[in-house]
C-alpha cells in the first residue's frame, strides 16, 4: 500500500434546475445507460420533450423540485424530490410525511466512482433539513443492482417489492432530534 493514496471527492454541487439545463438533460435522456433505468431505451428524449416535462417543475407549477448535480462546474446528474400524497399505494400512515426522490448520473464513465453515494447522502441531508419529511423513499428497478447498493450505503432499507416484483421500495427514516 506504500505510495497509494485515497482521494475523497467533495466538489459535488447540487443546484436548482433552470431553463438552461434542457439541452444537457436531453443528452442524458438519450443515453442508453441512463434510459435503461430512467425511461425507455427505445424512446430518447428531445429538447422539446424535456422542456415540456421539466419547465412546469422549474416554474413551481408541478410540486416536484428538480436539481442538477455538478462535479466542479460540469453537470453530471439529475435529482428531484416530491411530497407523496397523503393517500398512497405504499402503505404509509396519513400522519407520516413521506417524500420520494429520483436521481441518475448522466455521464456513464462516472458510474461506480462513489458520486452517487455523495449525491444521495447530500440530498438526504438537504431534505431532512428543509422539509417536514419523516421518511424518504425511492423505488429502483430490482435489476438496478448498482443503484440499490448505493442507496443501502446511504442508509436506505429494503421494504418490499412491488409492480409485479420489478421494483423495490426502499426507505430512509429521518430521526428527529
TrEMBL record:
The N-acetyltransferase domain, residue ranges: 12-175
Keyword Lyase: no
Pfam families per record: Acetyltransf_8 (PF13523)
Alphabetical keyword list: Antibiotic resistance
Taxonomy, superkingdom: Bacteria
The protein's name: GNAT family N-acetyltransferase
The species this protein was found in: Viridibacillus soli
